[in-house]
Amino acid sequence: METTKCLIIGGGPAGYTAGIYASRADMKPLLIEGPQPGGQLTITTEVENFPGYPNGKSGPDIMNDIREQALRLGTDMREGMVSAVDFSKRPFRCIIDNEDEILAETVIIATGATARWLGLESEQTYRGFGVSACATCDGNFFRGRDVAVVGGGDTALEEASYLAKLCNKVYLVHRRDEFRASKAMQKRIFATPNIEVVWNSVPTEIVGGKQGFRKFVTGLAISNKKTGTASTLPIDGVFVAIGHTPVTDLFAGQIDLDEHGYIRTRPDSTATNVDGVFAAGDVQDPHFRQAITAAASGCKAALEAERFLLNQE
């Protein structure tokens, strides 16, 4: 059995930043990286909107820089997955890989959220090469070009509205004949001249090519659900906006989750309903889902964990 003042679950921007701040506070944090060290940024190619990189940098390189900073400052970084937790009393009991037991005075949950994808083989082929799940992350690469957004909720319409300011044309592909999004958002979409709504349609394939080592998207094949008609939209990029799934199954019944599975935190805080357990990053943020906001909440979580321990003393 091992003990720690601060256990960080998850190795994305939130987890690594929490490690940096917890290390500087002499909490000697232990960080379990999980199944995807570095988080969603590791499947992103060029990143232009993370501060400190004026010429842009690849997502994996940025995450490696933050990880190395956390290591240098003293974060104990380990591979593995947290397979069980018991938050009923302090110190909190956590099991790693169904085997090793750790007792933690505080826990910071930074397990993130995963984008929902269409499930097409071609989607995997062109992910990061014209296929994205984040318009604010990757939209600038398609400035002046034609793109498609797939989805019909608020997120999809927000992505389409954002891209319409950058792109020549935006096709908004939705499988139904009406949107689930708010009326205000729908009104904005219908009033935007370079957004074309494609109703009752589902993507069947992402069309593209390859030149040397470079892959690129040239179209989105769709099928009309009512008529059965097949067609291909001539585009350079596809933005999938059908939702995200927070990685919180492990914590169900242990802490409060909202109706979508995101961890509930107190207003203006990363604290959960369990004293000593904090949540940072996309696992508790269904709105922004940016690397920089995740990193900021990781900082907050570490500072709040430090203050919690000081109050206990």
Q: Characterize the quaternary organization of these chains.
A: single chain
Question: Total number of helical segments?
Answer: 7
Shape: elongated
> Radius of gyration, rounded?
21 Å
The profile of the biggest β sheet is: 7 strands, mixed
Helix content: 10-25%
Span between N and C termini?
23 Å
Strand content: 25-35%
CATH superfamily of the largest domain: FAD/NAD(P)-binding domain
Query: What CATH architecture of the largest domain would you give?
Result: 3-Layer(bba) Sandwich
Number of E-state strands: 19
Q: Count up the domains.
A: 2
Topology-level CATH name of the largest domain: FAD/NAD(P)-binding domain
Write the H/E string, N to C. Answer: EHEEEHEEEEEHEHEHEHEEEEEEEH
Mean pLDDT: 95
Name of the CATH class of the largest domain: Alpha Beta
- Runs in which pLDDT lies below 50 for 5 or more consecutive residues are none
Explained architecture:
With 313 residues, the protein is α/β, with parallel strands linked by helices. The protein has seven helices and 19 strands. The protein has two domains: 182 residues, 3-Layer(bba) Sandwich (FAD/NAD(P)-binding domain); 124 residues, FAD/NAD(P)-binding domain, CATH 3.50.50. Strands 1, 2, 5, 6, 7, 8 and 19 form a seven-stranded mixed β-sheet that branches. Strands 10-17-11-12-13 form a five-stranded parallel β-sheet, with helices on one face. β6 and β7 form a beta hairpin. α1 packs parallel to α7. It is elongated and about 65 Å long.
